[in-house]
């Protein structure tokens, strides 16, 4: 929570003293609007107020207390530069609603068992730090704006999505999304960054991104129940050093990318119920990746031109190691290692490989042998 103390200075003889005045604790009541600083001294049950408490550009320290049983929203954060910290909100419609001009900070707040969302954000440039959204009847976090920073938050056991983000330039780092009924982390927009997040055992895709120029770096997507590990639709997205494994309940790829000019660099995809990497589109790059023990092919290019798979590994997949479908034309497959796959290590469904280039790959089996190297 940002400092709300005031600097006091004066003279005592020739001695200058400087001190800090801390916020004064005072009971916060149901229906209050906080514009300065306040520290809660007791729990609140606010069955007759909507919202239960409003923080309008002020600072609320919940001091470990609880707001519950609301008629509507638990805490409404509005105005500019407000902060809320250290408490619990439950049994409301939306636990914490964040709107106004933005620039707010929410830290160490748990929002649980609400009838709709745990946190709903419509303003921009906010920070959510070390909060939790647990067991809400819709989403854990609904973000409908840009420039927000979410760090160290946890969404678990929510009825639909863990994190649902619509907007541009948001940053999600070191968050966890587990056992949610929908998508673990869903992003719609451009220029968003997902860095070192962990998604596990969500019913839908663990990570789903729709938009352009997003970055996914060092995330883990493990054990989705019915969906893919990472699903990306759009252009110019970059996936780097992500770990994807044990996803799906049949026909669910570890990493699925549909679009153009996307880059997949040093990612690992293993033990998924379909392909390790499922690629559709043009001019996508796969380099330095590993696809191991997947139920489909290691790398499956369904369609498109100008795609490149280089310096990657495919081993022990149930399908082929690397496969180009009949609508995948003029692609480059070079310097890969594909071994011990149940299908062909290297496979091109086009007659005479069309204009696909296969060069300097290491494999035991290939089809057709006339043009696959």
Protein model, in words:
The strands form 3 sheets. The protein has a 28-stranded parallel β-sheet that branches. The protein has a 16-stranded parallel β-sheet with strand order 3-6-9-11-13-16-19-22-25-28-31-34-37-40-43-46, with no helix packed on it. A two-stranded antiparallel ribbon has the order 1-2. It has no helices and 46 strands. It has a domain at 24-159. The chain is elongated. Helix content is 0%, strand content 45%.
Architecture blueprint of SSEs:
Blueprint (H helix, E strand, L loop, with lengths): L5 E7 L2 E7 L11 E2 L2 E3 L4 E2 L7 E4 L2 E3 L4 E3 L6 E4 L4 E8 L5 E3 L6 E8 L6 E3 L5 E3 L2 E3 L6 E3 L5 E3 L2 E3 L6 E4 L4 E3 L2 E3 L6 E4 L4 E3 L2 E3 L6 E4 L4 E3 L2 E3 L7 E4 L4 E3 L2 E3 L9 E4 L4 E3 L2 E3 L6 E4 L4 E3 L2 E3 L6 E7 L2 E3 L2 E3 L6 E8 L2 E3 L2 E3 L6 E3 L8 E3 L2 E2 L2 E2 L6
Parallel strand pairs: 3-6, 4-7, 5-8, 6-9, 7-10, 8-10, 9-11, 10-12, 11-13, 12-14, 12-15, 13-16, 14-17, 15-18, 16-19, 17-20, 18-21, 19-22, 20-23, 21-24, 22-25, 23-26, 24-27, 25-28, 26-29, 27-30, 28-31, 29-32, 30-33, 31-34, 32-35, 33-36, 34-37, 35-38, 36-39, 37-40, 38-41, 39-42, 40-43, 41-44, ...
Antiparallel strand pairs: 1-2
Helix count equals 0
Query: How far is the N terminus from the C terminus?
Result: 60 Å
Considering DSSP H and I runs of 4 or more, what fraction of the residues is helical? under 10%
Q: Please give the number of β-strands.
A: 46
Give the integer mean of the pLDDT values: 93
Summing up helix and strand content along with how strands pair, one would put the structural category as: mainly beta
Low-confidence stretches: 3-24
C-alpha-based Rg, rounded: 26 Å
Largest sheet: 28 strands, parallel
- What sort of overall outline do the alpha carbons produce when their principal axes are compared? elongated
């Amino acid at each position: 929570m940002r400092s709300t103390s005031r600097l006091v200075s004066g003279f005592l003889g020739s001695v200058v003293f400087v001190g800090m005045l801390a916020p004064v604790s005072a009971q916060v009541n149901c229906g209050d609007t906080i514009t300065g600083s306040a520290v809660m001294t007791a729990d609140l049950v606010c069955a007759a107020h909507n919202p239960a408490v409003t923080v309008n550009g002020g600072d609320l320290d919940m001091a470990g207390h609880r707001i519950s049983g609301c008629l509507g929203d638990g805490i409404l954060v509005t105005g500019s530069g407000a902060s809320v910290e250290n408490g619990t909100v439950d049994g409301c419609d939306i636990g914490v609603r964040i709107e106004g001009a933005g620039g707010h900070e929410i830290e160490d707040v748990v929002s649980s068992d609400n009838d709709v969302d745990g946190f709903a954000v419509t303003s921009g440039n906010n920070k959510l730090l070390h909060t939790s959204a647990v067991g809400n009847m819709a989403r854990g976090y609904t973000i409908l704006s840009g420039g927000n920073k979410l760090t160290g938050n946890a969404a678990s056991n929510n009825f639909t999505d863990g994190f649902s983000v619509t907007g541009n330039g948001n940053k999600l780092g070191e968050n966890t999304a587990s056992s949610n009924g929908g998508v673990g982390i869903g992003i719609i927009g451009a220029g968003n960054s997902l860095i070192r997040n962990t998604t596990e055992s969500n019913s839908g895709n663990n990570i789903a991104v729709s938009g352009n120029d997003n970055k996914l770096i060092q995330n883990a997507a493990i054990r989705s129940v019915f969906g893919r590990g990472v699903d990306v639709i759009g252009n110019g997205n970059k996936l780097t050093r992500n770990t994807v494994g044990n996803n799906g309940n049949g026909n669910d790829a570890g990493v699925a990318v549909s679009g153009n000019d996307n880059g997949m660099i040093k990612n690992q995809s293993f033990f998924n119920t379909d392909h390790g990497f499922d690629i559709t589109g043009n001019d996508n790059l796969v380099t330095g990746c590993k696809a191991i023990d997947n139920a489909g092919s290691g790398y499956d290019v369904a369609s498109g031109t100008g795609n490149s798979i280089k310096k990657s590994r495919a081993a022990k997949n149930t399908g082929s190691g690397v496969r180009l479908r009949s609508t995948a034309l003029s692609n480059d497959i070079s310097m890969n290692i594909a071994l011990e796959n149940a299908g062909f290590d290297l496979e091109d469904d086009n007659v005479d490989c069309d204009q696909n280039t296969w060069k300097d790959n290491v494999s035991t089996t290939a089809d057709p042998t006339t043009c696959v190297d």
